[in-house]
């Protein structure tokens, strides 16, 4: 009961002191506001980058294994990978035969070409030669029109399905279906437009600036040296089969390439997990550095609060002496100043959260990345504000609580 009375009394005195010194309180919170804005915006940006990356990488497929000549992420030994032999269509066919009835195998080839429709030109578009199985492997579907069919590949038809960004850039409000475009020097008839996937994510592929043609047509018109550069996607029957499937794919590819047991693989297995792991490692390191830097502003804000609290204790030394003379305990004085510094920082933190929410809304509306303040971030910001207040106010409050009442009453 006594403890409750002390807390209640200390809280009232702290609130009265803050209200009596509004201007000083507002100026004191500036450092905390800046610190909370910096920390909250950094965390929001990190979450936004993760969300944008996940959305962009969703087209890769979490249950798909990609067999390629090169790994998606090369940290070192680039020359070793560079000297590997390309994957061929014959190897893709052999792998498809080996997994018939157990997994979906889809080969793709790609090349960058300029695309032209009348006077409109799109430069550097990724042209992908593939089969009708690509939507099954990647879950990417046409928004309207159709995707490639088996007979398109069988008869090497000059048809194309264009990405959403390509359609917007070349046709605006015109229906592109059945229009003819030039890919390089060859004419193709548009049969479908893919759903919007989102822009390029941090240097990754821009799925909206891709077009798809039958892989047999690709070999026919863009053959030659490129005909041996194939990527093979293998989709598992379920997520639980992924680990077993990976071992099986490696085993089959070793047999197809006639590798001896002592020889290392001369191909790479790529998965969404490895891509996410590399992304999280890099962005996690950037986040740690960002939080370290932004925490400095919060530390400076805390120093400002501590300085003001020392001034407050000094100015109210006689008040402390009077309170002690009429029976106030040390803990009452300690709580009074701790509450005062904690409330100042809490108010600064709430203002900082409001400012950070405005910045987050601006980032979101700009289309740079999807950004939102999660309840976890907001709760953490409030707790950090209060903890900074307690830490910054403890030493001044301890000094005030330890004052001798006689000496405090004599203070002028």
From TrEMBL:
It is a multi-pass membrane protein. Keywords: Cell membrane, Membrane, Transmembrane, Transmembrane helix. Residues 26-246 form the MacB-like periplasmic core domain. The chain crosses the membrane at residues 25-46, 282-312, 333-356, 376-398. One of its GO terms (cellular component) is plasma membrane. GO terms for molecular function: transmembrane transporter activity. Residues 293-405 form the ABC3 transporter permease C-terminal domain. It comes from the Bacteria. PANTHER family: ABC TRANSPORTER PERMEASE YTRF, MEMBRANE COMPONENT OF TRANSPORTER-RELATED. This is FtsX-like permease family protein. It comes from Woeseia oceani.
């Amino acid at each position: 009961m006594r403890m409750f009375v002390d807390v209640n009394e200390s809280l009232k005195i702290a609130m009265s002191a803050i209200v009596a010194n509004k201007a000083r309180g507002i100026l004191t919170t500036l450092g905390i506001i800046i610190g909370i804005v910096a920390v909250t915006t950094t965390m929001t940006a990190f979450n936004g980058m993760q969300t944008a990356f996940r959305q962009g990488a969703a087209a890769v497929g979490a249950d798909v294994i990609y067999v390629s000549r090169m790994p998606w992420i090369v940290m070192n030994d680039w020359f070793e990978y560079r000297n590997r032999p390309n994957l061929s269509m014959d190897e893709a066919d052999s792998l498809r035969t080996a997994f018939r009835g157990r997994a979906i195998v889809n080969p793709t080839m790609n090349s960058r070409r300029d695309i032209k429709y009348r006077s409109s030109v799109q430069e550097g578009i990724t042209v992908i030669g593939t089969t009708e199985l690509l939507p099954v492997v990647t879950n990417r579907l046409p928004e309207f029109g159709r995707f490639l069919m088996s007979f398109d590949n069988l008869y090497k038809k000059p048809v194309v399905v264009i990405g959403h960004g390509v359609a917007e850039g070349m046709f605006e409000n015109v229906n592109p279906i059945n229009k003819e475009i030039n890919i390089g020097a060859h004419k193709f008839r548009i049969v479908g437009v893919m759903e919007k996937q989102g822009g390029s994510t941090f240097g990754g592929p821009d799925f909206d600036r891709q077009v798809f043609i039958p892989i047999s047509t690709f070999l026919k018109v863009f053959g030659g040296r490129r005909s041996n550069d194939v990527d093979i996607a293998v989709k598992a029957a379920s997520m639980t089969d992924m680990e077993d499937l990976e071992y099986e794919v490696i085993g089959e590819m070793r047999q197809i390439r006639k590798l001896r047991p002592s020889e290392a693989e001369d191909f790479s297995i790529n998965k969404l997990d490895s891509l996410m792991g590399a992304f999280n490692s890099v962005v996690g390191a950037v986040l740690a550095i960002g939080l370290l830097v932004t925490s400095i502003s919060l530390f400076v804000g805390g120093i400002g609060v501590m300085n003001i609290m020392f001034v407050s204790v000094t100015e109210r030394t006689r008040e402390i002496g009077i309170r002690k003379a009429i029976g106030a305990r040390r803990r009452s004085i300690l709580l009074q100043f701790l509450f005062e510094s904690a409330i100042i920082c809490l108010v600064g933190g709430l203002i900082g959260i409001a400012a950070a929410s405005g910045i987050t809304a601006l980032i979101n509306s700009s289309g740079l990345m999807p950004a939102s303040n999660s309840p976890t971030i907001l709760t953490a910001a409030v707790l950090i504000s209060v903890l900074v207040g307690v830490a910054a106010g403890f030493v001044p409050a301890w000094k005030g609580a330890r004052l001798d009442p006689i000496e405090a009453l004599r203070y002028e």
